[in-house]
Amino acid sequence: MKKIQMVDLLSQYNKIEQEINEAVINVIKSSAFINGPEVKLFASELQDYLHVKHVIPCGNGTDSLQVSMMALNLKPGDEVITTTFTFIATAEVIALLGLTPVLVDVCPDTFNMDPEAVKKAITPKTKAIVPVHLFGQCAEMETLLNMAKEHNLYVIEDTCQAIGAEYTFSNGIVKKAGTMGTASGVSFFPSKNLGCYGDGGAVFTDDDELAEKLRMTVNHGMKVRYYHDAIGVNSRLDSIQAAILRIKLRHLDEYIKARQIAAGKYNDAFAGCDKLVTPYVAPNSTHVFHQYTLVTKGVDRNGLHQHLMDKNVPCAIYYPVPLHKQKAYLDPRYKDGMFPVSEMLCDSVISLPMHTELDDEQIKYITDSVLEYVNK
Q: What are the chain's domains?
């Protein structure tokens, strides 16, 4: 059996090696390393894939969220609602800009932002909601968008884990993750479903005026070279990464399908085990399985984690500590027990290997190893 990887980027690369190598060499020969033609072509092709008007490439997923908030002119003291069960970057950029993060709990089935909790958290100081499309499926966007419209709030989608997922509204309209809010941030970190071979990110929006501000913000606040009309940052997707992403974008739907098939095989293997809750897929969202995350019931999750590592099965805990318990984000507003779902998940979730190259032999070994411990 081939060695199991949490994410097998090398095997994926081997299948597209010639395309990738040619693309990289062409950029090197062109010497157009910064904001070259490949960056513009990638942005255009991703716009077409997403059916969104503007894709503004940037340096990474964290930057994509930060520049969205900067371009929307959010000011210190403004409250931004997000979830406590997410990667730190979601709240990090809020704090970095002097904004006030307001944390809410998640739904126990999808792990995504609980709209009822959001409703209770809105105050006159609230300016934006940041739903996180966690692990690969969309948050309950129709409810959140209606709430935002009622209170005149921005919606900034954190799409870093869900590019390619689709959400169906009650009227039958289907939108891809990241194309529903005011703006959306995405990461092209190598392990993402659409990942480059370094750092990369982008912002999506349908708002022409906001897109112009975003392009200025990622480029030192410049619209005309050396004329700085706003405070900006230096956040760029380099041409080599853009060239790689152009190749991988052509395979994205194929990659998503491979992950969904692997998830289905995991689900089948665990179907008879009442100590494991397999990922729930909401009826109005597809799931692109950036992560395959189990919830353990009556199982020593940390013991399972160690057992799998001892069996050479890589696994991870996303996330062991909710944001409201992180040292950097401790706040007297938040007490133990205020976010029961997130706290339960942090104590019980475990993520198994998930990527495009998983084969049946590997999946059987992984699932047998899990069940060996759970059923002991």
A: 9-104+114-249 (3.40.640.10), 252-374 (3.90.1150.10)
